[in-house]
Amino acid sequence: MSLLKFEHKIVDIDGVAHRIIEAGTTLERAEFLQQLLSINKHETIIQEVPAKEEGQPASYNLVTPDVTFNPIVKVYNRELKTPKGQKVTPDYWNQKTTHLEPNYWDKNKKDF
């Protein structure tokens, strides 16, 4: 998951630099993040990565042309909002819960 690595790679797509937000993920996860980021006015592109072995499912990369975008900074600074207008927590970003507990560090208050 993208919140586990601070450094996010930059790739060239049609001569334009793009930052990888999340690499090697499922289509459902990429679509979830793309919807979340589009609500927050961040442009993203889902790129299909072909399977390395035949018979394996394809994976997807979510990229943005904003090379300064860092999901760790955005999530932990509480800069992103959900479709309902609530602040995104790390557990919401990682799709561990839909309950947005503001004290994300307090495991006693989590519902999972």
Overall pLDDT metric: 86
SS content category: alpha+beta
Give the SSE string: EEHEEHH
Q: What is the helical fraction, as a range of percent?
A: 10-25%
Shape: globular
How much is the radius of gyration in Å?
Answer: 15 Å
Strand content: 15-25%
Describe the biggest sheet? 4 strands, antiparallel
**Tally of domains:** 1
Q: What can you tell me about this protein's structure?
A:
There is one protein chain. With 112 residues, the chain is an alpha+beta fold. It has one domain. The chain has helices at residues 27-39, 71-76, 90-93; strands at residues 10-13, 16-25, 45-49, 59-64. Strands 1-2-4-3 form a four-stranded antiparallel beta sheet, covered by helices on one side. The longest helix has 13 residues, at 27-39. The radius of gyration is 15 Å and the shape is globular.
In short:
The protein is α+β, with helices and mostly antiparallel strands and 112 residues long.
Keywords:
single chain, 112 residues, alpha+beta, 4-stranded antiparallel beta sheet, 22% strand
